[in-house]
Amino acid sequence: MAVIANAKVETLPEPWSGAIRSGRHQLITDKPESFGGQDQGLAPYDLICSGLISCTMITLRMYAQHKGIDLGAFQVEADFCTNKEGREWIERRVHFQSPPDEALQHKVLDICSKTPVTKTLLRSLEINTQLV
User: How many degrees, rounded to 5, is the angle at CA 16 between CA 12 and CA 82?
Assistant: First the structure.
């Protein structure tokens, strides 16, 4: 077994707020005011989207560097969506300052479908919980 990531959250005094620590980094998680939180930090589904888009950005930049391609400046966005039937999905968008040619656009889409976090989200993931 190899651990590739680790994070810990500790409750804060405000309802639904927590301090997340991962390595040397920390951030606040909370719920929006409309859900009774203080909106002091990212909500859990925002964190899922953040993981996906950061992995997408890093993977695209690594690919471009490896192939000697200049993708220029770009942004990646994601929306976590749900409907009345309970179906859930993520809409991801990559915006380039200077759009790549058609062949590279197809390659970018292919790479996006193969990022590590994308692959994790697309397959079943076992979650084991222990009380310690």
Answer: 145
